[in-house]
Amino acid sequence: MLKAKKPLKLVVLGDSISAGYNASGMTQVAPGTPPYPALVASGLERVFGSPVTLANLSVGGMGVVWGVGRAPAVAEERPDLVVVAFGMNDTSMPRAEWADAIEKLVAAVRQGAPEAEFILVSPMCGNPQWEKMRDEVFLEFRESLGALKGPGVAVADVTSIWLELAKRKPYWDYTGNGLNHPNDFGHRLYAQVILALFAKTK
């Protein structure tokens, strides 16, 4: 669709990160950088020339079990592309159950929107000084998503990039609250990792 410059409907479902928390455009302060879902939509338009309509159904504080329940609402949007991004609020959830819920979410959306394709986003890492935010947890999420890759399902690995940043920068340099939200730099990082998946299709 992008190669043919056809209109594309993008739906994003996730937690506060996907809802845009701590992006300056969300908090209405300078420089007004949009959250990563809007950056992805505008990036696709700019690179491919396709009109992209964005529906962001993300809600702060939510996890993947809530996301499964929202699958019918995602399908009702008649999406061509769905970005699914959970994990930050699921750190106490057994990893096998988490991966199963992601798989159920994708299957439930496909029931109502069988042509939709998916990008599963492995999350940024939370501040490791908080017990619930250990890096190993997020690496396990990333590995779980990797096992779900297949026809119509790609994975955007934000986790690995985030851990590389942590080797060089203080946590405050790329987070907006010092705990579990990206700042403008972090939102751009999310968008760049997602958009990089399209590099070979240009």
Your description of this structure?
- The chain is an alpha/beta fold and about 200 residues long.
- It has one domain: 3-Layer(aba) Sandwich (Rossmann fold), CATH 3.40.50.
- Helices cover about 40% and strands about 15% of the residues.
- Strands 2-1-3-4-5 form a 5-stranded parallel β-sheet.
- Helix 6 (about 95-110) packs across helix 7 (about 135-145).
- The longest helix has 18 residues, at about 95-110.
- It is globular, with a radius of gyration of 16 Å.
- The model has no long low-confidence stretch (mean pLDDT about 95).
Structural key phrases:
202 residues; Rossmann fold; alpha/beta; 42% helix; five-stranded parallel sheet; 9 helices; globular
The pLDDT mean sits at: 95
CATH topology: Rossmann fold
Strand tally is 5
Q: What is the name of the CATH class?
A: Alpha Beta
Net shape: globular
SSE string: EHHHEHHEHEHEHH
Distance between the termini: 11 Å
Chain oligomer state: single chain
Q: CATH-wise, what's the superfamily? A: SGNH hydrolase
Strand order across the largest sheet = 2-1-3-4-5
Query: Strand-residue fraction?
Result: 5-15%
Using the CA coordinates, give the radius of gyration: 16 Å
Range of helix content: 40-55%
Low-confidence stretches at least 5 residues in length (pLDDT < 50)? none
Largest sheet: 5 strands, parallel
- Counting structural domains, the number is 1
Overall structural class, as computed from helix and strand content, comes to alpha/beta
